[in-house]
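[step 3/7] inverse_fold.run input=structure_tokens len=342
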């Protein structure tokens, strides 16, 4: 039936803090879709029963920890998911119980690629949440020729955001230009040269995705900094298989200056290392968005570094999920406004 309300949701544990419902619901409103987006707290053990209860109204799931590995065998993974063994997106093209018509994707990686590309090589970008996260560098299908160009007016009655999406047929990228007075959307930080080297703090799933994204974005050198030598060795071996030259380092080692620092560790840990991290690169990327701002972000801003944030990643990965689930592109301006509007 054409009037069937499609359902999507974010799953994980804990999940109450998730901002995904705010972003996806804003996108549905802007796209004119009568869709629902829910939040469900689930552990790995509870996942099979949840899936068994899904009917054909369900279109997609956003999955966070601890579910990112558990969903990989639900359906058909792409090359990114096969390489990493983790995913964050499930798309049901048929019955939710049918692996043959279920796609498994990782928009964390494509979102990270978008951020790295716009921060390091996309002309005219580098500072604002909107410009960085709006540069969606890669999709599973590599085809965004039917992207819509529209004007979005916030329901609260604020001024319209004029959005233009320019399709680049050579790179399947969409450079997004935005006109809005909200300071969150400003682009007042300097353009950066291409990112060729990275210092990654942490050895978990996000660090893994970051290194993979760096390898696919033209980075050649990386340092992996952590406490657990075995975890460092495991991640180093994986990153080298993707073409990176990697050096493992402890928190106490001397770090070599890099083009970008990527922190994937808790705010308190990065905060203790903030002085050294800020001194190590002109671009500082803290993947957290809670607390806001993080101690590392505050230190980077005080040192006049280009700052990339967890909100950038949140928006960029959500853009990918929305595109995969709805088949339509939602400009980052709409999602950014959803984050700053109560």
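[step 3/7] decode complete -> sequence:
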């Amino acid at each position: 039936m054409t009037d069937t309300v499609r359902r999507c949701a974010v799953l994980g544990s804990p999940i109450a803090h998730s901002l995904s419902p705010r972003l996806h619901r804003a996108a549905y409103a802007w796209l004119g879709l009568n869709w629902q987006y829910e939040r469900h707290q689930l552990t790995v053990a509870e996942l099979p029963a949840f899936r068994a209860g899904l009917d054909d109204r369900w279109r997609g799931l956003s999955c966070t920890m601890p579910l990112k590995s558990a969903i990989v065998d639900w359906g058909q993974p792409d090359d990114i998911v096969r390489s990493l063994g983790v995913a964050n997106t499930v798309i049901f093209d048929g019955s939710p119980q049918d692996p043959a018509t279920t796609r498994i994707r990782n928009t964390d990686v494509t979102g990270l690629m978008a951020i790295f590309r716009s921060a390091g090589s996309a002309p005219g970008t580098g500072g604002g949440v909107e410009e960085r996260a709006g540069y969606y560098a890669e999709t599973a299908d590599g085809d965004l020729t039917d992207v819509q160009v529209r004007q979005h007016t916030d329901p609260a009655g604020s001024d319209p955001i004029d959005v233009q999406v320019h399709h680049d047929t050579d790179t399947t990228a969409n450079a997004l230009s935005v006109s809005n007075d909200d300071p969150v959307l400003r682009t007042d930080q300097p353009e950066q040269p291409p990112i060729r080297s990275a210092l990654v703090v942490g050895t978990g799933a996000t660090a893994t995705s970051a290194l993979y994204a760096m390898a696919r974005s033209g980075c050649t050198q990386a340092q992996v900094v952590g406490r657990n030598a075995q975890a460092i060795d495991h991640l180093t071996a994986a990153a080298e298989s993707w073409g990176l030259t990697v050096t493992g380092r402890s928190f106490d080692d001397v770090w070599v200056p890099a083009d970008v620092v990527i922190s994937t560790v808790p705010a308190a840990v990065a905060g203790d290392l903030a002085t050294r991290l800020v001194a190590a690169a002109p671009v500082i990327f803290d993947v957290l968005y809670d607390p806001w701002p993080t101690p590392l972000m505050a230190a980077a801003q005080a040192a006049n570094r280009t700052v990339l944030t967890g909100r950038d990643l949140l928006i960029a990965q959500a853009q990918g999920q929305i595109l995969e689930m709805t088949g339509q592109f939602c400009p980052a301006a709409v999602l950014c406004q959803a984050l700053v509007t109560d």
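[step 4/7] annotate
The two ends are 34 Å apart (CA to CA).
The CA atoms of residues 40 and 317 lie 19 Å apart.
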